[in-house]
Amino acid sequence: MIPTITNERRGAASGRRRRWVAVLAATALLASACGGSDDAADGGASPSPAPAPGAADRPLVVGQVAEPASLDPHAVTAVNDFRINVNLYDGLVRYDEDSLNVEPALATDWSVSDDGLTYTFTLREGVTFHDGSAFDAEAVVFNFERMLDEDHPYHGTGPFPLAGQFYGSLDTIEATGEFEVVMTLSSPFAPFLSNLAYPSGLIISPAAVMQHGEDVGRNPSGTGPYRFVEWRSNERVTLERNADYWDGPPPVSGVVFRPIVEATTRVNELLTGGVDLIVEVPPDELAGLRSDASYTVYEQAGPHVWFLILNLLEAPFDDVRVRQAANHAINRVSLVDDVLQGTATVANSPTPPAFGSAHNPDIAGYDYDPERARELLAEAGYPDGVDVTFYVTEGGSGMLDPVPMGEAIQADLRAVGINASIQTFEWNSFLGEVNPGLEGKANMAQMAWMTADPDTLPFLTLRTNAWPEAGGFNSGYYSNPEVDRLLEAAQVETDPAERDRLYRAMQEIVVEDAPWVFVANWKQNAASTSALSGFDVHPSFLLRLNRAALG
Questions:
Q1: What is the pLDDT of residues 399-439, one digit of tens each?
Q2: Contact assessment for residue 197 and residue 107, using Cβ atoms and an 8 Å cutoff
Q3: Which tens digit of pLDDT belongs to each residue from 192-205?
Q4: CA–CA separation, 42 vs 345, rounded Å?
Q5: Of the chain's two ends, which shows fewer C-beta atoms within 10 Å, N or C?
Q6: Same domain (yes/no): 209, 308
Q7: Residue 264's domain spans which residues?
Q8: Count: domains in the chain
């Protein structure tokens, strides 16, 4: 149940902020099928301040994989949106510069009670939101009330798809001073701090929510290193430097995010000077960029899983033998080596190796065995094969090369008698079809998740209580009571070793049940001109651009 959050005392102005500056507009060559109108959403920002000493007097231009869905950090779930939002907003805490460890942000300090239920945060003083309103304890309370309290006057500006799963254990929240917030949980929740560092925990201006209501996602105001200027649908989102950022003003004058869906077009824009930085470089372009001193390639393994969701409510994947057949039918080594050209490793479970001891290395997974796949299909009553509908996206955060991947998978499945008819969608349209559940629409769908805690992906996608109608992302309707028990136990387990053991046990059951086809763990990448400094890819897969400079 979503709790009602209480606020007993009003805090005074305090906080901290980040900013980004974008002055020039760059026009995207590629339009997304699911954008808004072509009208600009103007944030009403004041003119850009002078650039920091030594900085290029122009914005950094970034080639994104898709049009953002919203700039309201509480209303979105995709890394594509979060890559913009982490530069507009701060949370109480954040990941440090090169790991998933948590460090102070809008909270300068915090303490946790011995029973793991009470978190007391001391807030940063002297920070205001980009719209000039105060960051204080009341603003923090407003943010969590808005997400979690169905009776809050601005709860209707959602929905907030991650709130219940990430912060549903929050029982009460109080502003106990001008710069102090106390959060009390209903039960211990091991990933709570990590979840606060995730972009769903970013703090938005209450005044902006009150002014813009449901349109705040196109009129954002945070405390981050950059502030919003405009959003021209399917062309660009423009941000400008926040000269008063508590962590120091960014070196560049601003950032322009351009949605460039087709991967080769992103590379061409980099090569011709249309952008300075691109994400998710296609594998066949990496070698050329590496060999050219005019460009820099960034690579890092991280907690990523690329998989196929199978619809367990409807035939044929309601039969575990057909699900196991699909896992045996797909040549994942070939996908990784040939389609992805070594930029990923084969995934054998829902928990990637990047999570260390929470990953179960003893799981062998499913070998490529077309003959065994045919045997399983025949045992399940499909000796002559079966037709299925397969949802594929044109692009999207962490989706690698989704169309070539989909076509290669389609060929492998067809070879054993699973005849997959592909339906292709633009990224935001794809999420709109898949996230509410596949029932009555498709038998299988591509998906990828990048997460910061081993709890997040299985808790949001594999529990019975995470079916779409319950507010989760279990779009294939998997249900196993023992998996539910293990995941719920892991969330309240405070001993790290025991928590990892529970995750390893969960993986053994899930792999046997095969609710997904486990495909790949990506080594994330990005590429830029050699003029860019102060940037690197982050294990969270986010883009932190507050130190980025153009020489």
A1: 988 999 999 999 999 999 999 999 999 999 999 999 999 99
A2: no
A3: 999 999 999 999 99
A4: 43
A5: N
A6: no
A7: 41-276+531-550
A8: 2
